[in-house]
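Sync notes, pocket subgroup
Present: LS, DG
LS reminded everyone that the earlier model was apo-only. Rerun requested with cytidine-5'-triphosphate included. Inputs:
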Amino acid sequence: MLSGKHIVVGISGGIAAYKIPQLIRLLTKAGAEVRVCATHNALEFVGEVTLRTLSNAPVYSEVFAPENNRATEHISLHDWADLTIVAPATANIIGKMANGIADDALSTMLLAMNKPIVVAPSMNTNMFLHPAVVRNIDTIGLWDNVTVMGSPEGLLACGDTGAGRMAEPEDICLIADKLLEPQTLRGKRVLLTAGPTKEAIDPVRFISNHSSGKMAYALAHELEKRGAEVTIISGEVASEVRRRANDCTIIDVTSAEQMYAATTERFSQADIAILCAAVADYRPETAADRKIKRSGEELTLRLVENPDIAARLGQLKQAGQLLVGFALETDNAEQNAQDKLKKKNLDAIVLNSLADKGAGFNTDTNKVTILLANGEAMHYPLKDKTEVARDIAEVVTRLSDKLTSLPL
Ligand code: CTP
């Protein structure tokens, strides 16, 4: 939701200011317009020209700068802004915010700012743990329009290791994006399956598939941003994929049977279930408890069918619950997806065809068609998986609105 939004980036004088050009790039790449307001100390750490060039606008650092049309220009940023980010937020600027002090362009602008403000603290650990700073952070954290980000432990620029590092620009962007999203799914509980399952052959080998979980986690993030409470029943996925869904509850499973148990157990408490996982249809009848050694002869693995989670939820579904599946097909795509929609009693199915270049497993893009139980079909062009997730989230929101407005 950053596209077309007006973001003020307030920079105070901490060494992490060197990361702010990257933050501005991320925001502008996502389609936001940025204005920078920086303290004098901040401009010792990061060049004014860099900030002006990346934001394509003058940098506000002086209350009485001749290039400001009016001496109150930085204050009127609150009219322009949809959201403000203070990063890095030093102990000093946090103290000024908490105590209503306005003695330079940044602190004055912040005192006048009545839109959402994201604060990303950054300071030496001793300062971060000082009772005065703890109190100031607690104070601003209670204000309705302020979100204070965590300060992860790590190596600090001063050479110490500990709490007080600034949150990464990618994470600051995710929070900003979320705060700007209308809360159309507030109060909805979503259960989502994700990633591949692994079916053990012996303690070191398994049968699995190429699912990366990228689509599922991008979708979880989109739904969570809209206010939904998302629980992901997840097969193994890479940590950078997992990071997309920081605020979701993640329940880790390995096999299809574990995913089945975890999902069916929670379904009655869910308003919406979305089955993105690439569940293995078969598993070895028995998993050897020791490594199978080469014997010089043929080896036959006998496979038995796994339970179908989607079909079971389709049987359990109550009025008011929404069930959405995925289908990955190589041929006869739309017909096969229609058949699955009916057979599993789904309300919608998201079809990706492996025949489409750039769609399917392990890519950052996808091309989907969404089929609804009422026969409606929506075809989308090839897009980044984050944008596809947005399209799917829109349809899910629309369908869940319809369901909740129906008398039970
Ligand atoms: N699904 C599931 N449990 C299974 C198999 C599939 O929940 N054991 C779900 C998938 O998460 C997806 C939908 O059912 O939402 C369709 O999955 P897909 O693998 O395309 O269909 P299958 O029913 O397994 O049919 P086939 O593999 O024969 O195409």
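DG: The longest helix spans residues 385-405.
LS: The chain has a mean pLDDT of 92.
Action: DG to write up.
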